[in-house]
Design a protein that fits this description.
heterodimer, A: alpha+beta, two-stranded antiparallel ribbon, 3 helices, 3 strands, globular, B: alpha+beta, 9 helices, 28% helix
Chain lengths: 119, 367
């Protein structure tokens, strides 16, 4: 068969809205959840996005948003997390390499920095 | 509704960069016979390239391909283990009269998938619903993910790429197809991958069982985390052996194995030899960078940062000009089922003879 019979996409349209519309994705929203940035955002009453501050009112403690994210994932929802550095404070290194977690990050991606890797 | 809105709704948000990318002011029309020719060529090339990979491994031709020693165990173990592999794209020249010719094989990190699988299909439905298109990419991807599910720990696959719009859209589209196949999935930038001393982990510190990475193997093996690849249990798609096929060195290997094959252009590691018109390509070049196109009395060169590992020389296959445009056919393989890997096609055209990352995607149809 050479012809597609049916093409249904869901995540791509969501991605277009969430990431590529140049908005500032809420790190506590299930579809754009970023664990560390959400914790910071709940604590601080807002978050930085590309160096700009966006005040937010989070009515619940962090676990509420994490649980919402997990329910979203379990039900088959798409998650498109922005890179942690996008939520970094101006002139402050990005979250993600937290020594307290014992996890190193940034070990892949340096060669392609600043451009795409597809062809 | 204007076309920009239509293609944005289908996910193509990089259609207007510095130059127009998606172009539907024209389309390419094929006959059913021509599509049969392209499908057969793609299936044949798929089989030939797998044989070429085996030949490289059997004869330890890694140095000729500029592959560093640390990558060899990864390549050989993944070739033996036959881990899942999803897709690839043969770039072909085709004039409708002579057999298609392989220009190169984007086996590791091909993009322009969303345009080929979805956007041009919407275009066909909107404008020519009674016509046909060489395109079963979408349902084949979903079907393949269902087959691969048993190989993916926890029936889960995580997707990562550079923080780049086109790459992000490509992996998000693939994520969509995986989720439609019933897999649990997420996506994140590749620099968010972590190492906890034992395992690669995601942004939430969860060990990564299987990852689709839109990031070249030759970059991964030389970056900081490359040293962990041999010990980590993460299953990577595409697998490391795709390093052999995405390398331009596979072109002279193919020519050596199948001399004068109708789908191949003469190619050599050692120089142009008796070729009158040729293209010099970096072994690990990308997006038309560092290309020299030689014709008697005329050379065209493109800039870039590639070429340190060496070059190959390939006979020039002049791209037939259509209204001044030079089309390259991107013929996709989904999976590796012998004789049935070809899944669809996209056409990119450039003003000049070298197709780069600003070439335009043009839809196609056939009767």
């Amino acid at each position: 068969m050479k012809k597609s019979a049916k093409v249904t996409i869901a995540a791509v349209a969501a991605m277009g809205l969430a990431m590529c519309g140049r908005r500032h994705p809420d790190p506590c929203a299930a579809a754009t959840f970023n664990e560390m940035a959400c914790q910071d955002a709940v604590r601080s009453g807002g978050y930085y996005w590309q160096g700009s501050w966006f005040p937010m009112t989070y009515s619940y403690p962090y676990p509420y948003y994490y649980d919402s994210y997990r329910r979203h994932v379990v039900s088959g929802g798409t998650v498109v997390s922005a890179p942690g550095r996008s939520y970094g404070r101006p002139s402050v290194s990005a979250p993600g390499g937290s020594p307290s977690s014992g996890v190193e990050r940034g070990g892949f991606g340096s060669t392609g920095s600043g451009h795409g890797a597809g062809e | 509704m204007n076309w920009q809105k239509k293609v944005e709704e289908a996910g193509l948000v990089w259609h207007t960069g510095e130059q127009l990318y998606w172009n539907e002011s024209a389309f390419y029309e094929f006959t059913a016979k021509e599509i049969d020719v392209l499908e057969a060529a793609t299936n044949a090339l798929e089989k030939m390239t797998l044989a070429a990979a085996q030949h490289v491994i059997d004869n330890k031709l890694y140095a000729k391909l500029g592959i560093r020693e640390s990558a060899i165990p990864l390549i050989e173990s993944s070739w033996e283990a036959e881990p899942p592999s999803l897709y690839g794209r043969f770039d072909l020249s085709y004039d409708g009269a002579n057999p298609p010719k392989l220009l190169e094989y984007n086996a590791d990190t091909p993009t322009s998938l969303l345009e080929a699988a979805v956007v041009q299909w919407y275009w066909l439905q909107d404008l020519y619903p009674k016509r046909d298109q060489f395109n079963s990419l979408h349902e084949r991807l979903i079907a393949l993910w269902k087959e691969l599910a048993a190989y993916l720990p926890g029936r889960r696959i995580d997707f990562c790429s550079m923080d780049d719009v086109e790459d992000g859209m490509t992996v998000t589209y693939l994520q969509d197809t995986a989720q439609q196949a019933g897999l649990e999935a997420s996506s994140f930038p590749i620099d968010e991958i972590g190492w906890n001393g034992e395992s690669f982990v995601g942004p939430d510190d969860r060990p990564l069982g299987a990852v689709f990475k839109l990031y070249p193997w030759e970059w991964m093996v030389r970056e900081e985390f490359g040293k962990h690849l041999a010990v980590a249990e993460t299953l990577w798609i595409e697998p490391p052996w795709k390093m052999l096929l995405s390398n331009k060195g596979i072109l002279p290997v193919l020519w050596e194995l199948y001399p004068r094959h109708p789908y191949l252009l003469e190619a050599s590691f050692d120089g142009p030899g008796l070729m009158m018109s040729w293209v010099k390509k970096p072994l690990l070049g990308r997006e038309g960078a560092n290309i020299t196109l030689h014709q008697p009395g005329k050379d065209i060169e493109t800039g870039g940062d590639y070429g340190a590992e060496g070059f190959v020389y390939q006979q020039l296959a002049p791209l037939k000009s259509f209204d001044g445009m030079h089309p390259v056919l991107g013929s996709w393989v989904i999976g590796h089922e012998e004789g049935n890997a070809a899944g669809g096609m996209g056409v990119r055209e450039a003003d000049g003879p070298i197709t780069g990352n600003t070439s335009r995607f043009v839809p196609h149809l056939f009767d």
